[in-house]
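--- STAGE predict ---
source: upstream dedup step, 1 unique chain passed
mode: sequence only
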Amino acid sequence: MSDAPQDDLPERASYRSILESGPQDYVIQGRYLKQHHAGIADLYLGFLKSLESPHLGFPVDRFEHSLQTATRALRDGRDDEYVFVALFHDVGDALAPANHPEAGAALLRPYIGDDMYWLVRNHGVFQGYYYYHFLGRDRDLRERYRGHPMFEKTAEFCEKYDQAAFDKDYESAPLSAFEPLVRRILSQPPRFVFE
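--- STAGE serialize ---
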């Protein structure tokens, strides 16, 4: 995101350490953060678009996989938050391929509920049910979560949407079909989560 929109706000906080800060400093910073947050949807959409390449040998690139996952959820009548999560579930690949579920979940957490956060954060091990055995890993690693309130919903997400979304002949909705939903969700004030 560019610093250009902030040029019309000449004020800056005056502290040299957080210990020296006062309420007026956070009023100033709050004005900048409001402008900064206005560009979050573009930033997240950029992360998503960056999954177009490389294809890494998959039948479709990760961007198309994301569109397919979201399109399937949309056509199945899932709610907006679910479709948003389906679209962005692999966005962590753009930043941290080695632990993309956790990275993606961290990016989405301020904008989604706890259940959907859990689904994104753990979908990788649930997706492993479909291929871990080809890599010499235990495909039943997801069983360690058996009994968790989101176990069945996460398993269903992977079965119906995630693992099925590698079809080069599938007609996905374009990103533009999801953009209003993305902008609506990301325009909400973020939940601040400190854990």
